[in-house]
Write a structure and sequence with these properties.
The protein is α+β, with helices and mostly antiparallel strands. It has one domain. Helices cover 28% and strands 35% of the residues. It has 2 helices and 7 strands; from the N terminus they run H-E-E-E-E-E-E-E-H. A 4-stranded antiparallel β-sheet has the order 1-2-3-4. The chain has a 3-stranded antiparallel β-sheet with strand order 5-6-7, with no helix packed on it. It is elongated, with a radius of gyration of 18 Å.
Length: 124
Amino acid sequence: MKSLKIAIFLLALMTIASFNLYKIYERRNAVFIWKYPSDDGRYIAKIYLLREKILNIDELYMMQILDRESNLLIIEYSAYNDYFPRPHWICPKGACEQFMWGDEAQHLIRIPPTWWDRLRTQLP
């Protein structure tokens, strides 16, 4: 019984590791598409293509928001999208707080990022 638990644990660990290695491989081989500087000059949004369209599934894109002065990654986000209507910054009162890059709620990136988003940018 104990050996079965160890085997299941090791299988789960290997599955998680292989998934993370695949994500790292995708990010390293991403195709840069375009960058969008914010209207207030504080941020730069970069769009990368991670995965081409497969059958009826949309392309997978990665968005990176960087601080313009330090060039540090603030938030990284990936999602499926089939087209870009018009990526743009939302800057009420002159301060850019959101970047919209699609037509759904999941395509809206808020700044400043949550603690979870900041943590995810530090992981490989």
